Amino acid sequence: xxxxxxxxxxxxxxxxKIIPAVVEFYDIAGxxxxxxxxxxxxxxxxxxxxxxxxxxxxxxxxxxxxxxHVSEKVNPVEDIETIRTELALADLATxxxxxxxxxxxxxxxxxxxxxxxxxxxxxNQGNYELAKLLSEDExxxxxxxxxxxxxxxxxxxxxxxxxxxxxxxxxKLIKDTMNELNIKASNLYFCAKLENEVLSLSGExxxxxxxSYGLGEIGLNRLIKSAYELLGLISFLTAGEKEVRAWTIPDxxxxxxxxxxIHTDFTRNFIKADVIPYEKFVEVDGxxxxxxxxxxxxxxxxxxxxxGLVVEFKIGT
Length: 317
Description:
By secondary structure, the chain is of the alpha/beta class. The protein has 2 domains: 5-21 and 232-315, Roll (Ubiquitin-like (UB roll)), CATH 3.10.20.30; 54-230, DNA polymerase, domain 1 (Orthogonal Bundle), CATH 1.10.150.300. Helix content is 44%, strand content 16%. It contains 15 helices and 9 strands. Strands 1-6-5 form a 3-stranded mixed beta sheet. Strand 5 and strand 6 form a beta hairpin. The radius of gyration is 24 Å and the shape is flat. GO terms for molecular function: ATP binding; ATP hydrolysis activity; GTP binding; metal ion binding. This is GTP-binding protein YchF. It comes from Candidatus Gottesmanbacteria bacterium GW2011_GWA2_42_18. Pfam families: MMR_HSR1, YchF-GTPase_C.
């Protein structure tokens, strides 16, 4: 996870060890029509994708006769619809495999069967976006099924260098594509060819090259940050002589649970947390001055964490 705050903190606390937050991406081969029936990588693909927290759907927009498309034509609407259909059909198979309700079924099993029946009906009617069509309570009820259609999706459009330069036209094409499919989801666009070229350049050369296309940073960094936001994640920071580190937690996570991300014992033995916004920490040049100026807040276990807090946990024995 790119984080320009970490080197600044490292300089203040005089450490060379920097550990950024991590977002893992799994590059899985493209899905083809009838994958749910075993075509292409079929169920092997679907088994992999069930384990992820979110789906990044890379959609081709660029035209290049030297790069073969599986359908022999570039049609982003059809490509997106193929993926959505195959994921929904895979979910339908999962839902239909669920056993019928027993006479002595628990309240939870009865509730799950109601939602399963509703989801089957929605998919059969061509309504594939279960994440939007089911209530939060309904989604929790069947979360054990790990349905693909319930995962948040980010659409990543792969464009040409020319399309990158024609920003207005490209953004209109993406908007029209999403509107035609009635999809309201996060999206980004990038040029894979350009990304490969940029990686061979030095930091300053990268910035100048990207600037010529109206970009502030490489596509991978933008993707990571967007994925973080999509999943509702934030980072809190720890800064000491041993290391400077960013820790990943859900937004508004209680301080006691955040402590447990560092070590499970910290949850059990939590006393308090000293917190200060990153900007103030940098402004006063570290913990000593921050405490002397009364800028450090001592908070309890139920304090809701915010992104960019520099934190020091007090743990009992």
